[in-house]
Each structure stands twice: as C-alpha cells, then as structure tokens.
Write a structure and sequence with these properties.
The complex is a heterodimer of chains A (513) and B (311). Helix content of chain A is 58%, strand content 0%. Chain A folds into two domains: 222 residues, Vanadium-containing Chloroperoxidase, domain 2; 203 residues, Orthogonal Bundle (Vanadium-containing Chloroperoxidase, domain 2), CATH 1.10.606. Chain A is built from 19 helices and no strands. By secondary structure, chain B is mainly beta. Chain B has a single domain, classed as monomeric porin ompg (Porin, Beta Barrel), CATH 2.40.160.40. Chain B is built from three helices and 19 strands. In chain B, strands 1-4-5-7-8-9-10-15-16-17-18-19 form a twelve-stranded antiparallel beta barrel. The chains are: A mainly alpha (513), B mainly beta (311). Chains A and B meet through helix 1, helix 4, helix 13, helix 14 and helix 17 of A and strand 8, strand 9, strand 12, strand 13 and strand 14 of B.
C-alpha cells in the first residue's frame, strides 16, 4: 500500500527536481534580420539634429583590391577560424538586429537604475549625482521622465547616425566582404547593402557615446557590448575592420551633437531646489487649491518638478504650452468629491482581473517604465516586419521622441496644476500599486500610452486599433488601481494623442514613406 | 506611474513558513502518527507580524509599511491509512494588512498542501526508542491569487514538491526530533511581461529557486502533554537579494532562522480532543521580515475503525 503511493511520489519528485527551470527571454532565439528592402536611399531621409547627412566627413575607403583591404580580409578569416561557441552565440544574438538589441540593453539599464534613493539618517533624500555615479545613490534615478528622455535621445541619435551611415554606404558603395571574397563564411543573410561604414559599428559608437552621458556608471559594461557587437559583425562575414572603424567614429561624432543638445536642454535642472518645491505649494494654495503632498514617509520631494522645462524634439516651447489642457475640477468642488468617491468605490473590493490589469501596466520602480513598456510592445511587432536597420531606428526614434515629448508635456501639466492624488484627499483609498510621488493631473501612463499608440498606429496601421485599446487599458489601469481620478486618464489620453500626432506629422514628411 | 517605491517591501514570513510556524499536532514535522482509520481534524489560527525586515542583508524598517501582519485560518486533517502511514492535508485562508502607507490588503484561500508520512523504522536503542520517518509532500495554489505583490501577497503561487527525512529519539518522556527537507518549486507566471532580478527578463515566467528546511524540536512528550522548543532554518537555494529600496519579488533569496516553543494538550474528559499553541521569533533572515508568530489550534480525532463502529 505505502509503496504504491510513496515510490511514484518520490519518483515524481526526483523527476521534477531534475528538470530545467531556466526561463528564456521572448527574443532569445530570433532568426537573423533579413530585410525585404535595404532602404538604400535612406541617406536622404530627414534627420533630427544633423543639418546634412554628411555633416561629419567619412573618408573614402581603401579599394577592395588594396593591400590594406587584403589585411582586413585576413583578419576576418582568422577570427572566423578561431570563433568560440560563445562568440558564435554573440553573432546569432546581434544578427537579430542591432537596433533591437541596443533597445533591449537600454531597457535593461533603465530597469536597473529605476530605483528611488533611500533616505538619509536626517530623513532627507540624497540626490544622485552625474559626477559621482558609482557611489550611492547611483546616478541616474531612471524614473519615467528620465527614462523617456534617455530613450528619446538614444533613439534619435541612432537614427541620425544611421541616416549618415546609409548616405556614405550609397556614396562609397563598398561591397560586403563576402561579396569580395567568396571563401568567407557568412553567418548572416547575404544582402546588397554596402558595408562601409558598418551599421553595426555606427550603432555601437553612437549608443556607447550617448550612454556615457545618460548611464555613466555603465561605461565599462557598455564598452564590452560595443566590442562584442563589432566583433560579431566581423565574425558574421558582414564587415571588415575598416568598415567597423569608420562606423564607430561616425557614430561617436553624431552622438556629440545630441550630447551638446542634452547638456543644454534644462534636464539637469529638473530636480529643482527646496525653494522651487515650496513655491509650488504656495502658488497652488494661492489659487485656493489643495496643493499636492508627498504620501511617502519621510516626505519625498516631488519627482523632477522642472522637467516640464526640458526642450522637446517634435515641437517648440510655445506649442508645448498650447498643448496644456484646462484645469481639473477644483479640489474643493463637488465634482472633485464625487471623482474621489468614484476612485474609492472602484478600488474598495478589487477583483483579480482588476489587479491583473493594474499590475500589467504598473511599470513602477525597478521596471523599464511606461515608455520602456511601449518600446517592448513596439519591438515585438517590429520584429515581424523585417525592416532594414535604418528603418528600425527611424521608427524607434519616432516612438521615443513622442514618448520624451509626452513626458515633458505631462510634467508641465502636472506641476502647473499641482493636483493632489486621490489617497491624499481620502485616506481610506488603498491602492493596488504604489502611489507615484508626483501630482495627479494628468496621468503620465495615459499620455505615454496614447502618444505611443498614435505613432505606432501610423507605423503599423493594421495594429492601430489594438494599440489604442491597449492605451485605453493602460490609462484605465491607473483609475482602477486607485492612484488617479478618471479625469486624469481621460484628459491624459487626449493630450497624449495630440503629442503623438506631431510624431505622425514628422513621419509623413521625413522621406521614409 | 511609479509605484510607491517604499511601500511594497520585504517578505512575509507567514506565507513562507506555513509548514513550520503552525500546526504542530500530528503534522508533517512531528514524530507522531495517527493510528489506523483515525482521522484527526482541526482548525488553526496563526498571527504573524513584523516591523523590520532584511533588504538583502541590510536590516531596516519602513514607515510606508509600518507593521505588516498576516493572519491565517487553516483547516487541517490527518488520516491514518495505517499506523505507519498517514496522509496529512492543510488548506489555509490568509489575510494580510499593513498599518501605514496606501497599499491595499489581500486575502483569500491559498494553497492545498498534502503530505504522505511513513514511519519507516522504529526500534529500541539504549533505553529509548528511535524512529525514522520519510515524507513526501506537495502543494498547489487553490485560487488565482496574486504572487507578485509582496509583501502583501498571500502566497507565492508556486506548485511545490517536497521530500523530508525525520529522525526522532524518545527517552522516557523526553524527546528530540530532527528533520531536513528539500522543496522543489515550479516556475510561476506573473501579470507583467518583463521584470528585473539581476538582469532584465522579457517574459512573464519567473524561475523559482528551490528551498531547504531544517527543523529541530525537543522537549517533554507524554500522553497528555507535549511541551517543546523548536528551531528552524529555512534556506533558498539561489534567488537574488532585494536591491536597496527596491520591491521584494517572489524569486528573492528568502532565508530565515526562527526559534520558538510549542505545546499540545490532550483533554482527559473528552477523548480525542486536543489544544495546541505556540510562538516563534525570527532571529536571523535575508529578504524576509523579522516576524513574531503565534498560533493556536483545536483538534479532534474521529475514530472510523471497526472497533469504534461496534460500540
């Protein structure tokens, strides 16, 4: 009797203990990118900061019958002969698309750095410093506005750099190594794309240079990724050392333009000062409105109150102000009372489905943030498109410029009205995710999501209604999670769509459609 | 958009130590067997609370949590298939609460746990009796409760399988019991499609590290009373530390060492009725709350044996 039960039970236990529980990423085993169209004319697409695709000179490459090139080919073959299995895995990894892989790396860094500093013993909070990124609190605190801007700058710089890259590819028209020497093995699909300068190296150079500014604590790990990506390009048979060197240099130069802009775009002042924080309270109280209060203990200064002053990519500051909606219901009004009661009623006895929606879209501390979530959503659909690298970059640049600008407009609105969260007005409101440490009106998730859904719906039209439904669910998740009034979400969706439409405007005029 | 960063921290001892901090009579951790065709059924109550926790190895409090408490009501039963082979089950209802901050309480039916307990060997050694037990157990979540909502989640929603060896020595009315177990935990799926541990995972599947548990108990054991001191060491094989000021996560490295005491009293006047109770305290831990736990239970033995039926 007992053996009949125990032996199978023990056997099952041993069998399960032996099985592999490893979890793999959804993009771990993608096939190599094999674009249907190489977009050979992309050198003529409209850039974001570069005034011309040849603003930075790239010297003509050595001829493919030169001794220098012969040395390049020898080096390539040598690498191929000595390729380890780890290097072969790196070739496969990067072959899925370098824009995709750098986007994933960027999301990982955001998640890694998206942690609020722990309080000091005097109950104030230390502020991360770009000049000392290795000491706690680590720089940056990659919160949603910071992340939106980081995604925006890196994607925009990658796009401009690849437009320049494509310009020179067409100009010099140097064939890929596997075309010159047919004895070279290829680990990526053979294409007609000229190899000089290498797009893999342009991307590595531009991204690494941008990361120095945005994630300075990661210089070492990013340099490793750069070297891995460039070596993978050579080992794949798609690029020689001279293709790589020219590409990396071009990428780094283009990045400098974006870095110069970033240093002067006001983001460095977005934290504000204690006087700024106090002013927000007194100005709001002077308008007979209940000012926002941090619901954290110890009280934490509001998140990046001056981020609304950051320079947008898609429109000027006058346009930005014109996007600001009218005020929320007055904090003393019956409308606000009923809006608060509505939140309380919704969150008092939540259903499991309600919690699931809230969690799916929460994208809070330690995550890729809402703009990062929309990057993941976009990437999953972009993968199916087999676009050229330059088109991948263009579409991420459109998305992330929209996300960055949505963040700026949203933060402008939040600190213009300085509106309290539902739990501040009614302490009985218990939430299904943490209450964000910044004002309520309008919902950032709603703005990020509507802006993303709008531009993505333009890029992948067959998914437009699905994206908008997701945006609506993301917006609603903040209401049913108890951290936003319904009006925050509704108005946020509208303003987000308006921001997204500026990206659509750009898309229809950038020469890529 | 940011979850309240401070709010959802540390981990719930009660949830993890369901098998250890409560339910001491004829359980999976004691050297007592039900006789054939006897069914012991009982109800237990447990209260667990903490206001400090270990974030990795850093011990801290959190004024956005205040005191975290877990209450549990368990329905438990043990059936004697034979005097050497028992089947034990447990179904708890769990509710959680924090005294500060804004995070919503959770409550619900958690996991069904079943143990098969086999008295493999019993022999006289010296003046006492040495016995050896082998146990196999498993648990399955009974409801679709949320796991990725620590510390307020009522459980981790993982299916588990456990194996345990236990040795007991009784000399006169004094005894000592030592057991060691290994728990295999199945991966879980969470509501998000990406999460960060020590790297970013773009999937909703979470690899759950396995665990070991050692339990030592010693004291007085007679027909009427059991009075014992209990120590446990729970260790997660793998898992990762909560980063500074981050949220806890189901696959954290959750370790805890607890010490406590427990009693069982069998009533004289009502045959088969017993009371249990006890308490324990977490003396060391990692990615768990420093919990203080209390429990109480009432058990009754129903005799289905033929002898009983004839009466």
């Amino acid at each position: 009797m007992r053996n009949k039960i125990l032996i199978p039970a023990l056997a099952a236990l041993m069998a399960m203990a032996a099985c592999n529980k490893d979890v793999s990423n959804s993009t771990a085993n993608l096939p190599a990118l094999n674009p249907a169209d190489q977009d050979l004319g992309a050198g003529g697409w409209k850039t974001i900061l570069l005034s011309r695709p040849d603003s930075f000179a790239v010297a003509a490459p050595a001829a493919t019958n030169s001794t220098g090139y012969a040395a390049d080919i020898l080096e390539l073959k040598g690498y191929q002969r000595s390729m380890t299995s780890a290097q072969a895995a790196a070739v496969r990894y990067w072959s899925a698309g370098a824009v995709l892989r750098w986007n994933e790396i960027m999301r990982e860094l955001v998640a890694k750095y998206n942690l609020p500093p722990y309080q000091s013993s005097d109950t104030t909070y230390p502020i991360p410093s770009a000049t000392n990124p290795f000491a706690y609190p680590y720089f940056p605190f990659a919160n949603p506005p910071y992340a939106a801007r980081a995604y925006g700058y890196i994607s925009a710089a990658q796009y401009d750099a690849l437009v320049a890259c494509w310009y020179y590819k067409q100009l010099y028209n140097r064939p890929a190594p596997y075309k010159v020497d047919t004895t070279i093995k290829t680990f990526v699909p053979k294409t007609t794309l000229p190899s000089y300068p290498s797009e893999a190296a342009v991307l590595a150079g531009v991204t690494a240079e941008m990361m120095k500014l945005l994630f300075p604590g990661e210089i070492g790990s990013i340099q490793q990724k750069l070297e891995e990506a460039e070596l993978a390009a050579i080992m794949s048979g798609a690029a020689t050392r001279s293709d790589i060197n020219a590409g990396e240099a071009l990428g780094r130069q283009v990045a400098q333009m974006f870095i110069t802009r970033a240093r002067g775009d006001n983001a460095g002042k977005a934290v504000g000062t204690p006087a700024d924080w106090a002013n927000l309270r007194t100005q709001t109280a002077a308008k007979n409105q209940v000012p926002w209060l941090s619901l954290e203990t110890p009280s934490r200064p509001p998140m990046l109150p001056l981020f609304g002053k950051v320079k947008c990519f898609l429109f000027d500051s006058a346009t930005m102000v014109s996007l600001r909606p009218g005020p929320p219901p007055s904090t003393g009004s019956d409308d606000m009372k009923s809006a608060t009661a509505e939140v309380y009623g919704k969150v008092k006895s939540p259903t499991r489905d309600q919690m699931k929606i809230v969690q799916f879209w929460a994208d809070g501390a330690g995550t890729v943030t809402p703009p990062g979530h929309w990057n993941a959503i976009a990437a999953a659909d972009f993968i199916k498109k087999n676009w050229s690298e330059v088109r991948w970059a263009r579409n991420f640049a459109l998305l992330n410029c929209a996300e960055m600008d949505a963040g700026i407009v949203c933060w402008d609105i939040k600190y213009f009205y300085f509106n309290p969260r539902p739990s501040q007005l009614n302490g009985d409101i218990k939430t299904l995710t943490g209450v964000p440490n910044f004002p309520s009106y309008v919902s950032g998730h709603s703005m990020f999501s509507a802006a993303a859904a709008t531009i993505l719906g333009h890029i992948v039209p067959e998914r437009a209604s699905a994206y908008m439904a997701m945006a609506q669910e993301a917006a609603n998740s903040r209401f049913i999670g108890g951290i936003h009034y319904k009006v925050d979400c509704e108005v946020g969706l509208t303003v987000g769509q308006n921001v997204g439409n500026y990206a659509v405007q750009r898309a229809t005029h950038d020469g890529a459609e | 958009m940011q979850r309240k960063y401070f709010a959802r921290l540390a981990v719930l001892m009660g949830v993890l130590l369901l098998h250890t901090s409560i339910l001491r009579a004829q359980t999976d951790e004691d050297a007592i067997m039900m006789t054939k065709n006897n069914f012991c059924i009982g109800g237990t109550y447990m209260h667990s609370s903490w206001d400090h926790y270990w974030e990795g190895t850093f011990k801290r409090d959190n004024r956005n949590i205040g005191t975290m408490s877990t209450q549990m009501i368990g329905l438990m039963g043990t059936y004697g298939v034979s005097k050497k082979f028992n089947v034990i089950f447990n179904v708890p209802y769990v509710s959680t609460h924090v005294t500060r901050g804004t995070l919503h309480d959770q409550h619900g039916i958690q996991d069904l746990t079943v143990w098969l307990k086999w008295l493999a060997l019993e022999k006289n050694v010296g003046d006492g009796v040495l016995s050896l037990y082998a146990l196999g157990g498993g648990s399955v979540p009974l409801t679709n409760y949320i796991a990725d909502y620590l510390p307020l989640a009522i459980g981790l929603h993982s299916k588990t399988l456990s194996g345990r060896l236990m040795v007991d020595y009784q000399l006169s009315k004094f005894f000592a019991t030592l057991s060691g177990s290994y728990t295999w935990r199945d991966n879980i799926r969470i509501d998000r499609d990406s999460y960060y541990t020590t790297e970013l995972h773009n999937t909703n599947e979470v690899k759950m590290p396995d665990m070991t548990l050692f339990n030592f108990r010693t004291g007085y054991r007679s027909e009427r009373w059991i009075l014992e001191a209990v120590g446990t060491i729970m260790t997660t094989i793998g898992g990762f530390d909560i980063r500074k000021n981050d949220m806890p996560f189901p696959s954290n490295k959750m370790n805890a060492t607890t010490v406590g005491g427990h009693f069982k009293y069998n009533f004289k006047k009502v045959d088969g009725l017993s009371l249990t109770g006890g308490g324990s305290y977490t003396v060391a831990g990692r990615n768990v709350g420093q919990s203080t736990n209390f429990d109480a239970g009432v058990f009754y033995i129903l005799d289905f044996s033929s002898k009983k039926k004839k009466k």
